[in-house]
Amino acid sequence: MARVISVESERFPIAGAFTISRGSKTEAEVITVTIRENGHAGRGECVPYKRYGETMDGVQAAIEAMRGRIADGIDRAALIHAMPAGAARNAIDCALWDLEAKLSGAPVAHAIRAVPLRALETAYTLSLGEPEAMAAQARANAARPLLKVKIGGDNDKARIRAVTEAAPDSRIILDANEGWTEHSIVENLAFAAEQGIALIEQPLPAGRDEILREIAHPVPICADESVHEAKNLDALVGLYDAVNIKLDKTGGLTEALVLRDRARELGFDIMVGCMVGTSLAMAPAVLLAQDADFVDLDGPLLLARDRTPGLVYQGSLVSPPDRTLWG
């Protein structure tokens, strides 16, 4: 029986607004792929990202263009060669993983040797704002052990100080979203080190980060926009100390596993991160992140409404997905 694919655009309201250096949004726009075969259905979710030239319509069209290949039974290995990395491939790849698990009865966690599964401590993201507003966010979440703080402007020192003073017991990741410059980075790194920051994510624009090879790293620096697939990694040796793996960048769990293993071989620490999406998007990433150094899978915590069933969060602990959700 041929496989049948359906594609749906969905919107989930964000609790308040989510703001980074490139702008704000009030809802998560996601695309959900469902692939059916022999009475079973596998699902995958992706989040198109404008930073990489993606739109909802464009990603949906790319998925629709694969309808015939999917009906003919394309597997995940062939999918990597048939589509570029990105959100569209991610949704299909994750749907295929889920379908395979349901058809075989064997959980994805077993297939990727991620057992025994455990609950993970995830970062919780604070949106970019004025120092006083960011301090208020930090105070409201000061009991969380790990905070990820969006920065990337002229007033970042004040923002950093406001957050560290408001949440003195939390470890803090700074995410500049490419918002620093070669003129500000040395001073900002030194200040971050003084404030006890644990990690700094993508301080400089991708492709304009060569200075990182020549300056001290008093705080470890993590690549995000600079890394998508395993083939990107060799060029990052000496520039970055860690890499942020997101399924919407790698184009699915299949390539993400390759990227993770190669990053370990090259000595990088691993962060597993996400776009702002629902529990369906986070579920495969929770399996990928079982041995990660940093976990940033708080997407559902930022939403006013998640899917049902969804992942279970207890404070900052996220439990592995129930197989009725994914995998």
Overview of this protein structure:
With 327 residues, this protein is an alpha/beta fold. The chain has two domains: 108 residues, 2-Layer Sandwich (Enolase-like, domain 1); 199 residues, Enolase-like C-terminal domain (TIM Barrel, Alpha-Beta Barrel), CATH 3.20.20. Helix content is 31%, strand content 23%. The protein is built from eleven helices and 14 strands. The protein has an eight-stranded parallel beta sheet. It has a three-stranded antiparallel beta sheet with strand order 1-2-3. A three-stranded antiparallel beta sheet has the order 4-14-13, with no helix packed on it. The longest helix is centred in the first third of the chain and has 18 residues. The radius of gyration is 19 Å and the shape is globular. It starts with a strand and ends in a 9-residue tail after the last strand. The mean pLDDT is 96. Its cofactor is Mg(2+). InterPro entries: DgoD-like, Dipeptide_epimerase, Enolase-like_C_sf, Enolase-like_N, Enolase_C-like, Mandelate_racemase_C, Mandelate_racemase_N_dom. Belongs to the mandelate racemase/muconate lactonizing enzyme family.
Q: Count the strands?
A: 14
Spatial sequence of strands, sheet with the most strands:
5-6-7-8-9-10-11-12
Tell me the domain tally.
2
As residue ranges, the low-confidence spans are: none
**Shape call:** globular
Major sheet characteristics: 8 strands, parallel
Average of per-residue pLDDT values: 96
Q: What is the name of the CATH superfamily of the largest domain?
A: Enolase-like C-terminal domain
For the record, the CATH class of the largest domain is Alpha Beta
Helix content: 25-40%
Main structural class: alpha/beta
CATH-defined fold name of the largest domain: TIM Barrel
Q: State the end-to-end distance.
A: 22 Å
> If you compute it from the alpha carbons, what radius of gyration comes out, rounded to the nearest whole angstrom?
19 Å
Count of individual helical segments: 11
- Can you write the helix and strand succession as a string? EEEHHHHHEEHEHEHEEEHHEHEEE
Portion in beta strands: 15-25%
